[in-house]
UniProtKB/TrEMBL annotation:
PROSITE patterns, A to Z: RHODANESE_3 (PS50206)
Lineage: Bacteria, Pseudomonadati, Pseudomonadota, Gammaproteobacteria, Pasteurellales
Active site: C65
Signal peptide: none
Full protein name: Thiosulfate sulfurtransferase GlpE
EC number of the protein: 2.8.1.1
Gene: glpE
Organism: Pasteurella oralis
InterPro entries reported for this sequence: GlpE_sulfurtransferase, Rhodanese-like_dom, Rhodanese-like_dom_sf, Thiosulf_sulfurTrfase
Similarity-based family: Belongs to the GlpE family.
Reactions catalysed, as given in the entry: thiosulfate + hydrogen cyanide = thiocyanate + sulfite + 2 H(+); thiosulfate + [thioredoxin]-dithiol = [thioredoxin]-disulfide + hydrogen sulfide + sulfite + 2 H(+)
Length: 107
């Protein structure tokens, strides 16, 4: 895969459950702390090194943002870094919530 693919929130959740795909939430710390998809990894400039240590470049990776726009750029960046199976969630966290998919609250 030299390009990322778009997934619906439901497809992303399925991929997480069936293939242990990692969901990378790239929203700011305040919004992530308020609520985020269950089992999401908060990807920031500071946590990128930890992400690289935990996940091989062939591990399925899904990126989610607020509305599904910024995640596309982050997905493309991950492809450029050598990750081979990268997806972006269409509609972002807003769509994830509307679908009624599992959410965690940190604060």
């Amino acid at each position: 895969m030299s390009q990322f693919a778009e997934l619906s929130p439901q497809q992303a959740w399925q991929l997480m459950r069936q293939r242990d795909a990692v969901l990378l939430d790239i929203r700011n710390p305040l919004h992530f702390a308020a609520a985020h998809p269950q089992h999401a990894f908060h990807l920031t400039n500071q946590s990128y090194g930890q992400f690289e240590l935990e996940y091989e470049d062939d591990h399925p990776v899904i990126v989610i943002c607020y509305h599904g726009v910024s995640s596309r750029g982050a997905a493309m960046y991950l492809i450029e870094q050598g990750y081979t199976e990268v997806y972006s969630v269409t509609g972002g966290f807003e769509a994830w919530q509307q679908e009624g998919l599992p959410i965690e609250n940190v604060s």
